[in-house]
Write a structure and sequence with these properties.
By secondary structure, this protein is an all-alpha fold. It has one domain (43-324): Orthogonal Bundle (Hypothetical protein af1432). It contains 16 helices and no strands. The protein has helices spanning 3-14, 40-49, 52-56, 75-92, 97-106, 115-125, 132-147, 154-161, 172-195, 206-212, 216-231, 241-259, 268-283, 291-298, 303-313, 316-327. Helix 13 (268-283) crosses helix 15. The protein is flat.
Length: 335
């Protein structure tokens, strides 16, 4: 008996008729022999978890650059919180948890060092533009495994690309991640802002608190319950109009009071300059690229795109170290 087939049968028997079944996946770009134990989305989840780009998330900024404290979120802890929120919703709605978790774990793999500051720097300096959701897809399709990519299923790749609020995934599982991403960063970025003494929960407007609650924990509970209650038994993932509007207003509040706060973002200008300088340097020194990136250039990929690939893959720590090696004078001594 092949265990995978039994698990696929269990999906058909127990999941919602609106769930994305592993046995009905649109498949991979490069056909592969099926695993005898794992359904395809579980296999994708494992590939993402073991990838180098996933491990690098632990040293990439979420909101606060080089915070003085061990409990501020990184891009990896953000990713894990998105995955947890998404799995909770998917399980309650009897949707495919493996697919949901795979999309959640991979949705930010293309993020630059220094968070959105690095993304803006590359977008401004590269004539081809730069968006982290597109880079996340490029990472799993092309860059991982030294240019071979992870060869993920169509459904996972669709969810990765379309996790932004102005886009819409094709699966309900992807739609869960799209909302879970926003819920996660509203929740944990406020928690970090409170820890950094930038804001307190009492600063949130009363019109929002009346709908979502007066603490970050109440917010999270309200958002998740609202999605489950309004999506149960439906072929869609949605929030009530009142809670959805409150979430968007809370997001606007976070942008004006946290994401553009001069205290939280005091080092951001330096990060933008650093990323831009590294891009301009490596654009002229392609000989320093890893071999797999040089092969992509030989195969016709624009040098500007490959330079973005290299700089975007860096962790905060590695980017700072490369900048210091290239542009900061070293002490001179004679032995």
């Amino acid at each position: 008996m092949i265990i995978r087939e039994a698990l696929e049968k269990r999906e058909l028997e127990t999941l919602s008729p609106y769930a994305t079944m592993s046995s009905n996946s649109k498949g991979r770009v490069r056909p592969e022999e099926l695993c005898d134990i794992r359904p395809c989305f579980q296999r994708d989840r494992d590939r993402i978890l073991y990838s180098k780009s996933f491990r690098r998330l632990k040293d990439k900024t979420q909101v606060f650059l080089t915070p003085d404290g061990d409990h501020y979120r990184t891009r990896m802890t953000h990713t894990l919180e998105v995955a947890q929120n998404a799995r909770t919703i998917a399980r309650a709605l009897r949707l495919n948890e493996d697919l949901t978790e795979a999309i959640a774990l991979a949705h930010d793999l293309g993020h630059t060092p220094f968070g959105h500051a690095g993304e803006r720097a590359l977008s401004n300096v590269c004539p081809l533009g730069f968006k982290h959701n597109e880079q996340s897809l490029r990472t799993v399709e092309i860059l991982e495994k030294n240019g071979k990519g992870l060869n993920l299923t169509w459904e996972v790749r669709d969810g990765i690309l379309n996790h932004e609020l102005d886009l819409m995934p094709a699966t309900l599982e992807g739609k869960i991640v799209r909302l879970s991403d926003k819920i996660a960063y509203i929740h944990h970025d406020m928690d970090d802002a409170i820890r950094g003494r930038i804001l307190s929960e009492s600063d949130v407007p009363e019109s929002i608190c009346k709908v979502v609650g007066r603490s970050i924990h109440e917010w999270l509970d309200t958002f998740i319950h609202d999605i489950v209650e309004n999506s149960y038994g439906e072929n869609d993932i949605k929030m009530s109009e009142e809670v959805g509007e409150a979430m968007l207003n809370l997001r606007k509040f976070m942008f004006s009071h946290v994401y553009t706060n001069p205290v939280a973002k005091s080092e951001e200008g330096k990060a933008v300059d650093l990323v831009r300088t590294l891009y301009e340097y490596y654009l002229k020194h392609e000989d320093l690229f890893p071999m797999y990136l040089l092969r992509l250039i030989e195969n016709g990929e624009p040098k500007e795109r490959i330079t973005c690939d290299y700089v975007a893959s860096m962790t905060d720590r590695f980017a700072i170290a490369r900048y210091q090696d290239l542009f900061i004078p070293k002490s001179w001594s004679v032995y």
